[in-house]
Amino acid sequence: MKIFLINLDRRPDRLRHMTEILNGLGLPFTRVSAVDGMQLPMGEVRRWGNLPPGATACFLSHRDCWKRVVDEALPYAVVLEDDLHLAPDAASLLCHGDWVPTEADVVKLETRLCRTLVDKAVAAAVSGRSLHRLRSSHMGTGGYIVTRKGAERLLSLSKRLEAPVDHVMFNSGLPSAASLTTFQMVPALCVQDSYIGQPFMVLGIESDLLDERPPVKPRGIRKVWRELKRPFVQFSGLVRRGASRLLTDKKWVFVKFA
């Protein structure tokens, strides 16, 4: 299975990190020179849509990978960003794609270490992992497989950039993501650096886009209200997950990295 690695020319440190990982796993890859938001003319940004330069550049970098899948007539390909940790058994899954469901547009390989709604039914099982249809939002484009028909669909959906690439692909509230047949790998095969909790694994290579989307911290009465409602929100989530598991063909799972 062909692997595309998106990497900025000005981040050779990240390229070294990913080269060490992928070479260590015996996985050849093709480096895709990422579009640099710091060098993207504002006229080009506005031509594509209303996203900030960094988000526009990120989207165009993924679009480049999708176009390569179509142009090279690949049945599927892996798309990786350069701030990842991969599981030790990644080679056994990424060396071929015979296990990718024929109906798939996208297979999400990564996790943000959160609960996600998926079908109970197992669409495929490979190397101790299972694939389930993804039924809720699960953001991030650090690692995924895109099939040729999925790439064609995504190119068609992104002729104008109305939302960040991970929202277009994985935000279930958007028509674009809802129109895709997406599967979640459980446990996940990769995780972005910023989500790893073990200090010895954190490399400090978190996304360059974080400066464009700083977290909004509640203050004053909003902070008090957030803390007051926290136990009710947690209880509601517990009830909702239990109801899904008992009464529907879907379930909420915590997608761990392994």
Textual characterization of the structure:
The chain has 258 residues and is of the alpha/beta class. It has one domain (2-216, 250-254): Spore Coat Polysaccharide Biosynthesis Protein SpsA, Chain A (Alpha-Beta Complex). 35% of the residues lie in helices and 21% in strands. An eight-stranded mixed sheet has the order 2-1-3-10-5-11-9-8, sandwiched between helices. A three-stranded mixed sheet has the order 4-12-6, with no helix packed on it. The chain starts with a strand and ends with a strand.
Q: What would the average pLDDT be, to the nearest integer?
A: 88
Give the CATH topology: Spore Coat Polysaccharide Biosynthesis Protein SpsA, Chain A
Provide the spatial order of strands within the biggest beta sheet: 2-1-3-10-5-11-9-8
Give the CATH level 1 class. Answer: Alpha Beta
Name the features:
Spore Coat Polysaccharide Biosynthesis Protein SpsA, Chain A, 13 strands, 8 helices, about 260 residues, globular, 8-stranded mixed beta sheet, alpha/beta, 3-stranded mixed beta sheet
Give me a quick take on this structure.
The chain has 258 residues and is of the alpha/beta class.
Element layout with pairings:
Blueprint: E1 2-7, H1 12-24, E2 30-33, H2 42-48, H3 53-71, E3 76-80, E4 84-86, H4 90-94, E5 106-108, E6 110-111, E7 115-119, E8 124-126, E9 129-133, E10 143-147, H5 148-157, H6 165-170, H7 175-178, E11 182-186, E12 190-192, H8 221-247, E13 250-254
Parallel strand pairs: 1-2, 1-3, 5-11, 6-12
Antiparallel strand pairs: 3-10, 4-12, 5-10, 7-13, 8-9, 9-11
Helix pairs in contact: 3-5
